């Protein structure tokens, strides 16, 4: 499994022309996914078949795991995009599940519905999690060490990082969390792409 760091996202103007959108996005299928698109489950449901006509076939589309929304919405959106010929990349926010078992069930539900090989693994924010009694750890390293992603057929997992400290964490705390993710994934055959310079020994 490959662990990669996502460095940026591109937002397109609402009236971005179809031809412009195709030219901009076409590099994603041939040039190491330099450009990707993020669509919420509600946007995908509302747009329907328009997505197929706006985006090139094979386009990587990230699907956010939003607060206070059931993960079934992400699963439905993932299936719909795959049926349109896109490459869906569902988000997985670990703190939005009460337990590891609940998160594992969500992963199994996803992979029973559709074969998906990529995901974006994030921690999510405690203050917006549906359950205040979540036992999940403070970062997504629990998922890296548990091999849950690998057992469910994922071949690559993206991990994002905030440039600024969050929730009272210092910059050192944030960098240490990144180091832990990299160290925990490497012994199990994973590799890190685009490693931040701050993490170099």
Topology:
Layout: E1 2-6, H1 18-25, E2 37-38, H2 41-47, H3 50-54, E3 60-63, H4 71-83, E4 87-93, H5 100-113, E5 118-122, H6 141-146, H7 148-151, E6 156-160, H8 171-185, E7 191-193
Parallel strand pairs: 1-6, 1-7, 2-3, 3-4, 4-5, 5-6
Helix pairs in contact: 2-4, 4-5
Shape estimate: globular
Helix content: 25-40%
Instruction: Point out poorly predicted stretches.
Output: 1-16, 28-33, 127-131, 189-201
CATH architecture, please? Alpha-Beta Barrel
In DSSP terms (H or I, runs of 4 or more residues), the helix count works out at 8
Distance between the termini: 22 Å
Sheet with the most strands: spatial strand order: 2-3-4-5-6-1-7
How many strand elements? 7
Mean pLDDT: 72
Main beta-sheet annotation: 7 strands, parallel
CATH class: Alpha Beta
> Approximately what portion of the residues adopt beta-strand conformation?
15-25%
* SSE string: EHEHHEHEHEHHEHE
Radius of gyration: 17 Å
Outline of the structure:
The protein has helices at 18-25, 41-47, 50-54, 71-83, 100-113, 141-146, 148-151, 171-185; strands at residues 2-6, 37-38, 60-63, 87-93, 118-122, 156-160, 191-193. With 201 residues, it is an alpha/beta fold. Residues 169-182 have a biased composition (Basic and acidic residues).
